[in-house]
Design goal:
The protein has helices spanning 16-28, 38-57, 71-85, 101-112, 130-136, 159-169, 240-278, 305-314, 334-338, 343-347, 360-379, 382-390; strands at residues 4-5, 65-68, 92-96, 116-120, 141-145, 172-176, 195-199, 210-214, 282-285, 295-300, 317-318, 320-321, 349-353. It is built from twelve helices and 13 strands. Helices cover 42% and strands 14% of the residues. It binds pyridoxal-5'-phosphate.
Amino acid sequence: MKRIYLDHNATTPVHPEVADEVCRCLREDFGNAGTLYSYGREAKKLVDDAREMIASVIGAKREEILFTSGGTESDNMAVRGVAYGNINKGRHLITSTIEHHAILETCKALEKEGFEVTYLPVDEYGTIKLDELKNAIRPDTTLITIMHANNETGTIQPVSEIGRIAREKGVAFHTDTVQTYGKLKINVDEMNIDLLSVSAHKLHGPKGVGALYMRKGVRMKPVMFGGHQERKMRPGTHNMPGIAGLGKAAEIASRDMQVEGERLLKLRERLWEGIKANIPHIRLNGHPTERLNNTLNVSFEFVEGESLILSLDDLGICVASGSACTSDSLEPSHVLLAMGCVPEVAHGSLRFSLGRGNTEDEIDLVIQALPKVVERMRSMSPLYREFLKKQGK
Ligand SMILES: *Cc1c(COP(=O)(O)O)cnc(C)c1O
């Protein structure tokens, strides 16, 4: 059976050109970038070239990019590093209720260590309010960390405005751009971003490698200790194939950003129109327009998201409920709850996230299959029967 993969916000297939580069690096570039002889110099050049590439996508300088093991580590490093590095100024951080767990759990851990964290609420579309951000800033605030686009709903935050506010108040601004790097235009200077997280496997690169942009002059303490790599902020011998792969993935993503973005938007709207026309009692989660081109999150009333996923999987269609991170628990998505979604409706939500390989034919197959699956599940739901009775049907 040919499978249809619609879960690109969880991870993406590695682009063939990236896979070639990773393999080439594994075979040919075994040097340690910290050594002086030719093998080491060649390795260093490869790391520097990737660094240059990754920096250029966001208008940063090469030396402001640090390689990490992925989005989670970049988020941890940014939040902890700035929190610890500015203790003399204060111990207050600001984030939002809809961040990725890599941010939320780090903040919770810091709270146990005596830091204070303000979690900004979001509106029904999942957007923070700028006034509430302004009001939350205190003299002892050292970091604002707000994601660029949410991985579950795709809602895009007003990052430029957040950056302007942070800069005016002299507070460092970190943004998790794992879902937007290489997809949306980002310029760290124009948007006043001080720190930014990237993960390769969300942009058709390999897993286990990422980057942290750290503006020159931002005060940060290292959270790991060892060698002198990565400005001593992230010591350890470089993950050469991973870094080469991330560089290649960044190059391809930025090269194709415009075309691919428009293509995905068309596919996403085709999917949404198809669902809307054929399935009643649904609602769109996320902002109607300020949203990632590839992401569609829909609640299907009177349906269990988990059962829906398994039925679709039987047909070869791979989608997510809530978020990949909560797929092994029955907790409804913290993002949907924060947007005011009631738990029953949050439970019946699916996230479709499109990517490079997806075609119009695939979308049409999903539009054909989904109504039947939803209808079958609803027919087994006592709640749905009761609802129909009340409606006099
Ligand atoms: C996937 C994801 C992460 C975590 O990245 P990893 O490289 O898997 O650790 C962080 N933030 C967001 C928004 C993500 O989507």
